[in-house]
């Protein structure tokens, strides 16, 4: 069994532990009314997008999400939360270092605390039980988002039950042989759709795209046809499923908690990788953490 296959299967248990941890770490996570920025790179950035929408929808305060490299340093925030599995990603460390003398409180949600981030962030929330050996992130990302959902009072046992269902039920038939995948979301699940597409690209070298569900109609649906899959991680707009089916494309309707739907996509990415003879533990051109020296450019 690959590392990523093992790790994605442990997500329900990790989510339960994160929900139990959230009350104890409440004081170092965004407080009601705080203007907050959540940052990350790659997968963590997409989790930040989802968390930002959830927080604003919950009425907890203005919340923005940025790639760490694109954080607008001229803006004033009451708190910055960094999501970082490795604690070594250059862009995250550079940002935390730059914020140290500004008076803005910083919190890092981290998989491995024995890394440079521990001396740069004001506070840590350690999810070492969700850390991973794999390059391709699964459980750390969804566990970090579960922590933030639980902090907002938006996580419950139903999400964990849905995750177990996502691991146990067969995937829709015939998907592994398809050539192109599009993932759709609405609200907070738009970030999950972006992450779903990233997982397909990383693990299986698939042509994968992602959009807000209504935006899919504004041009991207033109690529739908025989051999393509369109997967909605959330409730789809009226008529969209029929529109995709008329093109000859395969439609997959999300029926579980959107985060559990992402777990189903994790399984799909591994199935497609197996179909193509790829090793998901050795994704092309990727490393577990992007650490840059002068003159280098990030690959992820």
What do these coordinates show?
- It comes from Streptomyces yangpuensis.
- Keywords: Repeat.
- Residues 26-169 form the SIS domain.
- This is SIS domain-containing protein.
- The structure is a single chain.
- 38% of the residues lie in helices and 15% in strands.
- It contains ten helices and nine strands.
- A five-stranded parallel sheet has the order 2-1-3-4-5, sandwiched between helices.
- The chain is globular.
Report a brief summary of the structure.
This protein has 300 residues and is of the alpha/beta class. 38% of the residues lie in helices and 15% in strands. The strands form two sheets. Strands 2-1-3-4-5 form a five-stranded parallel β-sheet, with helices on both faces. A four-stranded parallel β-sheet has the order 7-6-8-9, with helices on both faces.
Task: Output the keywords.
single chain, 300 residues, alpha/beta, five-stranded parallel β-sheet, four-stranded parallel β-sheet, 10 helices, 9 strands, 38% helix, globular, disordered C terminus
Secondary-structure topology with pairs:
Elements: H1 3-9, H2 11-21, E1 36-40, H3 43-57, E2 63-67, E3 79-84, H4 90-99, E4 106-110, H5 117-120, E5 123-126, H6 139-151, H7 157-168, E6 180-185, H8 189-204, E7 207-212, E8 228-232, H9 240-246, E9 250-253, H10 258-275
Parallel strand pairs: 1-2, 1-3, 3-4, 4-5, 6-7, 6-8, 8-9
């Amino acid at each position: 069994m690959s590392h990523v296959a093992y790790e994605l299967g442990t997500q329900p248990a990790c989510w339960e532990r994160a929900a139990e941890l959230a009350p104890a770490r409440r004081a170092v996570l965004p407080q009601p009314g705080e203007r907050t920025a959540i940052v990350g790179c790659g997968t963590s950035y997409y989790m930040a997008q989802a968390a930002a929408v959830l927080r604003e929808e919950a009425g907890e305060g203005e919340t923005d999400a940025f790639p760490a490299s694109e954080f607008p340093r001229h803006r004033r925030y009451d708190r910055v939360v960094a999501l970082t599995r490795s604690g070594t990603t250059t862009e995250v460390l550079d940002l935390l270092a730059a914020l140290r003398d500004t008076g803005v409180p910083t919190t890092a949600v981290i998989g491995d605390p024995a890394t440079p981030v521990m001396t740069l962030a004001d506070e840590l929330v350690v999810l070492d039980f969700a850390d991973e050996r794999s390059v391709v992130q699964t459980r750390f990302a969804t566990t970090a988002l579960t922590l933030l959902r639980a902090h907002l009072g938006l996580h419950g046992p139903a999400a964990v039950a849905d995750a177990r269902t996502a691991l146990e039920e067969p995937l829709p038939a015939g998907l592994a042989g398809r050539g192109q995948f599009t993932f759709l979301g609405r609200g907070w699940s738009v970030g999950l759709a972006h992450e779903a597409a990233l997982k397909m690209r990383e693990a299986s070298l698939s042509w994968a795209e992602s959009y807000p569900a209504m935006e899919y109609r504004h041009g991207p649906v033109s690529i739908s046809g025989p051999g393509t899959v369109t997967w909605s991680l959330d409730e789809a707009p009226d008529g969209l499923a029929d529109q995709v089916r008329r093109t000859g494309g395969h439609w997959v309707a999300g029926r579980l908690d959107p985060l559990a739907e992402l777990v189903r996509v994790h399984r799909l990415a591994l199935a497609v990788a197996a179909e193509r003879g790829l090793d998901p533990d050795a994704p092309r051109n990727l490393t577990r953490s992007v650490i840059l020296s002068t003159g280098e450019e990030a690959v992820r």
